[in-house]
Amino acid sequence: MNKYRSDELYTTPLDEVVNFKFDEAVVDVFPDMINRSVPGYSTLINVAGILSSQYAQAGSQLYDLGCSLGAITLSMQRRLSQPGCRIIAVDNSEAMLSRCHQSIEAAEVDVAVEFVCADIQDIAIERASVVVLNLTLQFIAPAQRSAMIEKIYAGMLPGGVLLLTEKLAFGNESEAEFFTSMHHAFKRSNGYSDLEVSQKRAALDNVLVPDTREAHETRLRSAGFCEVRQWFQCLNFVSLMAVK
Ligand code: GEK
Questions:
Q1: Which of 64, 73, 136 for mutating ligand 1's site (highest number of atoms within 8 Å of CB)?
Q2: Per the structure, how many domains does the chain have?
Q3: Average pLDDT, stretch 77-89?
Q4: Closest residue (by CA) to atom 30 of ligand 1?
Q5: Nearest C-alpha to atom 10 of ligand 1 is from which residue?
Q6: Which site among 36, 47, 74, 148 is 20 to 30 Å from 130 CA-CA?
């Protein structure tokens, strides 16, 4: 029912590259785009589901913040064995959320999901044993990120986990150059041309603003998380888990 196309959004030269938006055109190519752009994406989705199943608490809520088409929601649903849990899938792109809703319903997994079309900065986080920010915090204005993490911490149950996956920035120039060029090579090897890579980069400039790993860790610890661990890295993409 959900037909997705291959990502050809930036194949031809554009007069003006406008800021990237998660609209209908992006939704149509999203699975292809994210798999060809994020090294290790399928591993991230799979293992985030496994980690969630270890930390989920009976009768609690699990949040997929910036859920896109619901890959994390589905991965959590399929592995959850604790009774009485509910997943809350949130995205502020209506196009994404409505397609997410369709595919989660079609998968017919027996774990309740609530779909919320809202800015993740405006929703309440309550009785959460698992919160996932898989490639989403990087789209929140940097000045708002600490408040977002503090709100998540406040809404989590003791022993709960936050999984935070992000594209990284690097303080060291040669490291930054190395990872940028390796990420470019990764995209080239997945069939993107130099033009596509550079136009996409221009579209994401000031839209996706990465932080360093140190900045993420400091923010998580200042919010109160006692245990912060990196469980994944592939090139310039990292995932941290933070336990309350
Ligand atoms: C995955 N987690 O497949 N409030 C709500 N949603 C937002 C906001 C916001 N303020 N800002 C951005 N989004 C997914 C991948 S994609 C990552 C996440 C990427 C949403 C946005 O609409 C998009 O669906 C998602 O966050 C980011 O595991 O495309 O690089």
A1: 136
A2: 1
A3: 96
A4: 135
A5: 119
A6: 36
- Average per-residue pLDDT for the chain: 94
Is 14 domain-assigned? Answer: no
For 169-202, write each residue's pLDDT tens digit.
999 999 999 999 999 999 999 998 888 878 888 8
Which residues touch 55 (CB under 8 Å, ≥6 apart)?
129, 130, 159, 160, 161, 243
- Residue at 51 is within a domain: yes
Give the pocket of ligand 1 (CB within 6 Å). 22, 34, 66-68, 71-72, 90-93, 96, 119-121, 134-136, 139-140
The answer to whether residue 33 is domain-embedded is no
Q: What is the pLDDT of residue 30?
A: 92
Going by the DSSP 8-state scheme, the letter that residue 20 receives in this structure is P
CATH assignment at residue 110: 3.40.50.150
Query: Could you list the residue range(s) of the whole structural domain that residue 116 is in?
Result: 41-169+208-243
Is residue 18 one of the residues assigned to a domain?
Answer: no
pLDDT over 60 at 1, yes or no: no
In one-letter notation, the amino acid at residue 96 is: M
Ligand 1 atom closest to Cα of residue 120 = 4
